[in-house]
Amino acid sequence: MQLCLSSGWGGLEMYPSRIIPELARQGWQVYGLALSGSRVADSMRDAGITPLTVASKGRALLGVRRILAYLATHDIGVLHCHKSSDLRLGALLATLRPSLRLLFTDHMGVTRPKRDLYHRWAYGRVTRLLSISDATRARNLQAFPLPAERIRRLYLGIDPAPYAPRLDLKEREGLRRELGIPDGAIAIGMPGRLTHGKGQDTWLEALSGLQHARPGLAWHGVLIGGLAVSEGSDEAYVAELKALSETLGLADRVTFTGFRRDLPRLFEALDIVCVPSRNEAFGLTVIEVMAAAKAVIGADSGAIPELLDRETGRLADPGSPAAWTTAMAELADDHALRERLGNAARQRVLDEFSLAAHVGALIGEYQEGAGAS
């Protein structure tokens, strides 16, 4: 059972619906537990299952007998939590149903110690804590009251097929015009939620630096991400970014796309993609860009250096717009380099970061010490 009692919508909340079809393909019967009316519940339905739903986290705790009966009826032996606040319910269920294997994936990257009495009880019921990168595991080892052997690194994965190029030349040129990219310009994109810490301000300042350092270079910026709270963004920060764009003289050279569902196709319209997030626990966007065979510049912080090296992309200090300007200029000047890096990046995703491989390893964690379900 995938447990995610969140009313939000981000990578953490999307994860269960991403793995459910692959778990089913690999022979597992999957169940879900989510909040009534949440996007998580809707996404689970879209992924092919009908989740058990509760009105709130409090109602879930009060209705624990109902959930226990559901677990027993469906002979569910594994409970996989994705949000730390859900561990209260997960640990209670594991206490009342001792045969239940409780797993928790730390999608966010813990930032403070969790070793008080409550956390020792809750994490004490966790069979396996899964860290999504080596950087995250290092923090987990420091923060959680668990022995090292119960904290394992399991990289995330994606289905690379949707990111393979599909547009013909005419379609690609049409999409570029739609995005405001002038003919012959180098398109420099940045995808992601428009929130503090993702680095859009650094990216804009780097583009301003590129404008001054290379006045003869034809380029256009494409900022991809929702502009409203309902789309996962910080509206006050969006306003700051638009004001910064005006102040830097970039209003005519940067397109704010708003929320888009066709991200793999947008990548096809771009030449360079930047991910300057300051402290990614993994960097899912990075491997999506890599799967699209695009030249990517990532932040030299968090887990991103585990994904990129000099053969597959470039790294830059997320606190230094000048470093990003330099990296952008290098890639803008060399079409062959962009092609070589992009092709090598896609191959690495195929070799190391596929969803099938991720789920296969996850199933291994589900099964260890217990029978298959």
TrEMBL record:
- InterPro entries referenced in this protein's UniProt entry, alphabetically: Glyco_trans_1, Glyco_trans_4-like_N
Taxonomically, which superkingdom?
A: Bacteria
Q: Which Pfam families match?
A: Glyco_transf_4 (PF13439), Glycos_transf_1 (PF00534)
Question: Which keywords does UniProt give here?
Answer: Glycosyltransferase, Transferase
Which Gene3D superfamilies does the record match to this protein?
Glycogen Phosphorylase B
Q: What molecular function does GO assign, one term?
A: glycosyltransferase activity
Residues covered by the Glycosyl transferase family domain:
172-348
Any GO BP = carbohydrate derivative metabolic process
According to the entry, every stretch annotated as the Glycosyltransferase subfamily 4-like N-terminal domain falls at 9-160
- What is stated as this protein's family in its record? Belongs to the glycosyltransferase group 1 family. Glycosyltransferase 4 subfamily.
The name under which this protein is listed is Glycosyltransferase family 1 protein
Annotated source species: Halomonas urumqiensis
